[in-house]
Amino acid sequence: MGAMALSDSPGAPETCVVEMRGVSKRFGEKLAVDTLDLEIPAGSCFGLLGSNGAGKTTALRMIYGVTRPTSGSIHVFGSDVQRDPRGIRARLGVTLQDNVLIEPLNTEENLRVFGRYHLLDESRLSQRIDRCLDLLELRSHARLPVSNLSGGFRRRVAIAMSLMNDPELLILDEPTTGLDPALRLSLWSLVRELQAQGKTVLITTHYMEEAQRLCDRVAIMSGGHKICEDSPRQLIESRLAREVVEIDCPPDREIELLGDYPGLLQRLRSGGRLLVYVDDARPLLQWIRQRDDLEGRSLVVRPSNLEDVFLDATGTALEASP
Amino acid sequence: MSVSWPHAVAVWRRNATMYRRTWKLNILPNFFEPVFYLAAIGIGVGAYIQQMGGTSYAEFLAPGLVCVAAMNGASFEVTYNVYVRLHHEHIYDAMLTSPIQADDVLAGEILWAMTRVMIYGGSFFVAVVLFGLAPLPQALLALPVIPLAGLLFAALGLAFTLRIPGMDLFSFYFTLFLTPLFLFSDVFFPIQERLSGGWSWLAEALPLLHPVRLARSAFQGSWSWLQVWDLLYLLGASAALLAVARRAIRERLTS
Ligand SMILES: Nc1ncnc2c1ncn2[C@@H]1O[C@H](COP(=O)(O)OP(=O)(O)OP(=O)(O)O)[C@@H](O)[C@H]1O
Ligand SMILES: [Mg+2]
Description:
The complex is a heterodimer. Chain A has two domains: about 15-230, P-loop containing nucleotide triphosphate hydrolases (Rossmann fold, 3-Layer(aba) Sandwich), CATH 3.40.50.300; about 240-305, Alpha-Beta Plaits (2-Layer Sandwich). In chain A, α4 (about 105-115) crosses α5 (about 120-135) and α4 packs parallel to α6 (about 150-160). Helix content of chain A is about 35%, strand content about 25%. Chain A is α/β, with parallel strands linked by helices. Chain A has a six-stranded mixed sheet, sandwiched between helices. Chain A has a four-stranded antiparallel sheet with strand order 2-1-4-5, with helices on one face. Chain A has helices at about 1-10, 55-65, 85-90, 105-115, 120-135, 150-160, 180-195, 210-215, 230-240, 250-260, 280-290, 305-315; strands spanning about 15-25, 30-40, 45-50, 70-75, 80, 90-95, 170-175, 200-205, 215-220, 225-230, 245-250, 265-270, 275-280, 300-305. Chain B is mainly alpha-helical. Chain B has one domain (about 5-255). Chain B has helices spanning about 5-45, 55-90, 90-95, 100-130, 145-165, 170-185, 190-195, 200-205, 210-220, 225-255. In chain B, α2 packs antiparallel against α9 (about 210-220). Chain B is globular, with a radius of gyration of 19 Å. At the A-B interface, α3 and α4 of A face α1 and α3 of B. Adenosine-5'-triphosphate binds near residues 27, 32, 52 and 97 of chain A.
């Protein structure tokens, strides 16, 4: 009752489902996660982004208590993960990066076996299987051995398994890698549906468009560090100019093309492709056209997006301006 | 952290669900192997042996082969099968996203290995009874030896499987460890009678020797203080190996 009154009181901080403070994880010489702070508000969809090896999966494993942090503290649902891993895992679901399915069993049997890990009784099992088959649109494939299913269906079975205990927090490690656009769309609507029920979703992805559309907040990691965190919109606005001019331009032509353009330009380079960020692209386009007939080069003007923030933040494509 | 038995049973049930589909393929070779030994060596070779330790050779052999059936039932389960679940199917990674803990996985796998031990050891025991080689009711006292031997080899095999870096090392385990145990642990001949005095401790170190001696005592109805040592060895070694396996599974599954 006291806790209820507290959270109802005006100005009380939003309750956090996940709270990480100064969390590091070292594997031998390798510092996989470096003093990471994360707060994931209840009911939100939080995106953890970062290149391969950035430490996303390690961070998730520490959240559900399978990897022990080298230092720092992690609270999930308000409890210390190391003290009550069972209690915490009963209330969350995890879709692992690689599907773990029991090949000879069918979809329904896979769900049943997984539901038993949560000690669901038989009537609750049947009820949850029904619900999860519907949520992931697996009804037509319920009786097929999972070894016969396509990649998209296998992924859906894996996600359905992580929903068997009706979790309050759903952790999705690259759920849409390898899925076709239609499946991806239906997964997005599933996430929104869960959010509408008050669930919290923590997702990692390499698809920036997905993160931008789905997540209330994202954190970008690189080499175990958190580089930045905010809503996708805020990140884009605070880090980059509004528009991007993308142009084919080898490094040695760059000075010739832009060299003395008035005003400071943010640029990124990815191989032979140059990205120039400006608030208004029109004067720059004119400037470029005066210097180059653009014969046989592709030039695109578009609003800047989360992918640009990612490239900028992780330094994946960054090169020193000339 | 300690074992939650309902969760261990959930691990057991996963294996049982799988096994229900393949048991017909599995059980036949496992069941017939000791039957063939009994027929070829016990009855075939035995025809040329007047007697062995006061009984016919087939009667001498039968209790030992019951223990071998238990050893093999446990060993196959906790070596290849557990290795595949761990490294290829990643079953345990999925289990650990639920409230199941590493200790529950260990307990569930041991329970499951013991189930197979009881199936193989028990069905071979029935075969021995049908061959008329088990004097009843006294031989029934050998039945508890089946799970005791199974537990020892389940813990031993698990400790090995959880530590090795690659599957090819199983050929060492089977060929250089289990096969000599099978041949020199009193199953076919009393090893102590063939070793000169100073070397008898070597035989006492063999893990299969102790269940074989216990089972034979039950079959022959002749007990001595030596069987107390056999029992203590089995319990002590199992406890020590379970502790090793527990450390190993925690290191493998959590980091
Ligand atoms: N158990 C482990 N032992 C040793 N090193 C590990 C272990 N787990 C992860 N690492 C290392 O930690 C770093 C981070 O790995 P992690 O799997 O968390 O990255 P990730 O962001 O999930 O990458 P990806 O996008 O490729 O899935 C990597 O360099 C990885 O090799
Ligand atoms: Mg990963």
